[in-house]
């Protein structure tokens, strides 16, 4: 996970179903581009809009295509039995890790957060378990408590938009104990790397793997001026994704892929396709990258 953790989109066919052949092409493009960690069923993959059968299909396709070319970090979540079933399915296919999506229950206590993740981690002791952390109220001590009980909790996708809070959380939990992944992608990667992250997630990587890898190499070498040049290059793309509470987070990525002829632009509700008036800007950004 100490690298670019790619979150593949889930392409849809004209009839609205998952498009397996297109998905295989997109995965091969990521692998050929140098990506070595894939997260099927992540948020950029429209996890919450997929049926249980579709989530299993996406996992199966990812393991099939990746083979031994990449580590597979499968997104799981919803209620505990559903998450456990998904994790065991991933394990049986040969995936190495699962990412546990943030609990969507409206009432999440800190001890309940530990119990939720512990139930999943204990069900698949053979797998590395990576909580997807978006709860700014959670303390680092709670993560340490979880890992004390479940040593297969090996990393964190940290997605609270506060670099100072991340720095404190990581040190309270154990900076050297986990792999810390900047879960808000390239826009936050430089600040989070300066505080101890060694990887970052990416949806943009679906469009331009070389752009994401250029930022990674700069951050690994401590070359922050170069990393920030990449940041400037992708800034507008990420602003479009983040607008209106990230309403178009997936939409903009699929629109860029559609402009390159790689997949259809359709997303599922509650997301929506990009308005015609904004499509040209996304296409121009994608065309301007070295892809």
TrEMBL record:
Q: Which InterPro entries match?
A: Aldolase_TIM (IPR013785), DapA-like (IPR002220)
Q: Which portions of this protein are annotated as coiled-coil regions? A: none
Would the keyword Disulfide bond be found if you checked this record's keyword annotation?
Answer: no
Lyase: is it a keyword of this entry?
yes
Which Pfam family, giving just one, matches this sequence? DHDPS
What are the UniProt keywords, alphabetically? Lyase
Q: Which SUPFAM superfamilies match?
A: Aldolase (SSF51569)
Organism superkingdom:
Bacteria
Transmembrane segment boundaries = none
Family that this chain belongs to: Belongs to the DapA family.
Report what the protein is called: Dihydrodipicolinate synthase family protein
């Amino acid at each position: 996970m100490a690298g670019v953790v790619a979150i593949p989109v889930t392409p849809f066919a004209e009839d609205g179903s998952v498009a397996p052949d297109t998905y295989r092409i997109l995965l091969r493009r990521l692998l050929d581009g140098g990506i070595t960690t894939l997260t099927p069923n992540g948020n950029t993959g429209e996890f919450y809009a997929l049926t249980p059968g579709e989530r299993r299909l996406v996992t199966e396709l990812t393991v099939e295509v990746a083979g031994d070319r990449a580590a597979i970090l499968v997104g799981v979540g919803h209620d505990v039995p559903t998450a456990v079933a998904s994790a065991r399915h991933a394990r049986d296919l040969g995936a190495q890790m699962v990412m546990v999506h943030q609990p969507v229950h409206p009432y999440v206590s800190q001890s309940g957060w530990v119990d939720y993740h512990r139930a999943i981690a204990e069900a698949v002791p053979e797998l590395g378990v990576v909580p997807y952390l978006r709860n700014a109220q959670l303390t680092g001590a709670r993560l340490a408590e979880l890992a004390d009980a479940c040593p297969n909790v090996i990393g964190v996708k940290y997605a609270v938009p506060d670099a100072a809070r991340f720095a404190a959380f990581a040190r309270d939990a154990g900076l050297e104990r986990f792999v810390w992944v900047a879960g808000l992608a390239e826009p936050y990667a430089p600040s989070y790397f300066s505080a101890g992250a060694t990887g970052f997630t990416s949806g943009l990587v679906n469009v331009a793997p070389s752009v994401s890898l250029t930022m990674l190499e700069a951050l690994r070498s401590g070359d922050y001026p170069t990393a920030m040049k990449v940041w400037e290059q992708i800034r507008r793309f990420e602003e479009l994704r983040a607008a209106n509470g990230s309403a178009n987070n997936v939409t903009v990525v699929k629109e860029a892929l559609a402009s390159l002829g790689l997949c259809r632009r359709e997303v599922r509700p509650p997301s929506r396709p990009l308005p015609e008036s904004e499509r040209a800007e996304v296409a121009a950004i994608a065309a301007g990258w070295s892809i």
